Every structure is written in C-alpha cells, then in structure tokens.
Amino acid sequence: MANLGIPRNTIEILQKYQFNFQKKFGQNFLIDTSVLDRIIAAAEITDEDCVLEIGPGIGTMTQYLAESAREVIAVEIDRNLIPILEETLSAYDNVTVINEDILKVDVAKLAQEKNGGKPIKVVANLPYYITTPIIMGLFENHVPLQSITIMVQKEVADRMQVGPGTKDYGALSLAVQYYAKPQIVANVPPNCFMPRPNVGSAVIRLTRYETPPVQVKDEKKMFALIRASFNQRRKTLVNSLGNDPKLNLSKESVAQALGQMQLSPTIRGEALTLEQFARLSDLL
Ligand code: SAM
Questions:
Q1: Which of 31, 100, 257, 276 could bridge to 7 as Cys pair (CB 3.0-4.6 Å)?
Q2: CA 58 to ligand 1 centroid distance, Å
C-alpha cells in the first residue's frame, strides 16, 4: 500500500471513497512523512509493543505503527473511515480497528485482553476537541501505560509542561505532571495536515512515572482541590475552596492549613506547586 504520508496518496484515497471531512470529529490528517517519522521515533516503538492509536483516520500513522509494533489497536469513531482503513491496512495482520468513541472504550480492559495487563503505548494525532478528557481518562482510569506520544494543539502542549506562576498553568498541568514526565518533541505547522487546522500543533511525549513524584494520601481529594482552585482562577484559595459546595470545607480550615504550610491566606491556586497541593490535601 502506498505511503499515505505523501499528500498525493492521501488525495487519491480520499477521492476514491469520496470522503467528506467531518469538522465535528476534529479531522485533520497528517500529510508529512518527516513528522510521522519523528512521532514514531519519539514513541520508541519496538516489536514487543502493543500500541493503542486513537483516531487512525485513513490509517496514515497506523501503517507506520504496524511496521514497528507487535500489535496495534486503532479506535476510530467515524464509520465512513472503516472501509478506507480496510483497504489502507490490508497488508497488515497485526492491526485491529475498533469502530467506537474512545471515551466509551474501557481501555484498561482492552490492555488486559490484548497485552495481558502489561503497559501499552498510546500514540495518536488527537482530535483536539477532546484532548483533555482523553488524557485524563487514560490516567485516572489507571490504564497500564508506558507512554503517551500525541499530537495536540501547541497551546495545550505548553499547558502540560509549565509550572506555577505562568498563565498556562492549571489543572491539566498538575494532572499530567503527577502521572508523567512531559517532553515536547516537535512543533508542527498547519501545512503538515489536510485540511489545515487554524492552530499550531505540537507532538508531546508523556512518560508514565512508576511512582508519582509526590506522595499524597488521597489522590481523588487532591484533584478535587486542584479543580476547584482553577475553576475560579482569580479567587484566593480560601475563597475558591471555602465556597465550593462539593468540597464541604470552611474558609477557616483552608486558612489554617495554609498557615501550617507558611503560605499567605490570600494566595491563589496558580501559585502552588504539585507538592504543595499534595500537602494541602493531606492537611485538609
Ligand atoms: N491519525 C490520523 C492522521 O494522523 O492523519 C487522523 C487524525 S485526526 C486529527 C483525528 C481522528 O480522530 C479522526 O480520524 C477522527 O475521526 C477521530 N476521532 C474523533 N473523535 C473520536 C472519538 N471520540 N473516538 C475515536 N476517534 C475519534
């Protein structure tokens, strides 16, 4: 099968099937072989790996993955792409295509079935409209993972790796950094896709920690605090946590815990490190 990373091959297959792009599914297909090579290299795929690809599209990256991995599972929501994938992946017997919404798939169960519960690698050019729920779903549902190597909107990649005191710092930064070590691998301009997205993109690799970099007694509680802190970003922690109906905390108890940590009672969540959120959660 022709390499779909070459634009004319992608155009040919799209025309053959009279495929119409669906904006609602975030369909921007990669048409750049050097970007594809970089993603595969960054993901460090070996012939022992079981890889989950989210949104294979017409199978461009799937072909690359099938060449290097032992097994590829590709989950695609758009049923119009299924006959195309049957053709473009016909040369490979190590690919399983599942026509489903990734947010409805039990990925932990899939990893159990396909990889005996051993850690899998996730590689994807993500549909940007659901980047955060996909990543959070993989982490929070405790899917056995080695790494996630994904194309995302540039701004979101930045958000994943910044620390306190920057405007991009938020709940996503803290969640990603609790579970994984983020590393931006490449910046990718709009002309590497068809159709061109109207934002810049970046490839980021998240390498899962075996043990998180900070210890916390109740992970769920810490993330509830983090979410509440950034829901009302401009408010002080005493106000945002003390007013949150779900948390059931008094302003006094928040102020007291901050005092024990030698932090100002007027401090905002955006100034706290992951370690400080863990400590605050334990104190509360
Ligand atoms: N991997 C292909 C490539 O690189 O050319 C396509 C990437 S495109 C940015 C995102 C893909 O995700 C599309 O094929 C789209 O149909 C699919 N998709 C969108 N929402 C999805 C969902 N909820 N579950 C599974 N796939 C989804």
A1: 31
A2: 9
Q: What angle do CA 279, 281, 284 make, to 5 degrees?
A: 110
Q: 180 by DSSP, 3-state: which?
A: strand
Round to whole Å and give the CA distance between 24 and 29: 14
Q: Distance between CA 104 and CA 100 in Å, rounded?
A: 7
Ligand 1 lined by 139 (C-beta under 6 Å): no
Average pLDDT of the chain is 96
Crossing angle of helices 171-179 and 219-231, rounded to 10°: 160
| pLDDT reported for residue 165 | 87
pTM over 0.90: yes
* C-beta of 78 in contact with ligand 1 (< 6 A): yes
CA of 57 to the centre of ligand 1 (A): 5
Residues 268 and 235 sit within 8 Å (Cβ to Cβ): yes
Give tens-digit pLDDT for 192-236: 999 999 999 999 999 999 999 999 999 999 999 999 999 888 899
What CA–CA distances, in Å, run from 113 to 96, 106, 146?
A: 13, 11, 17
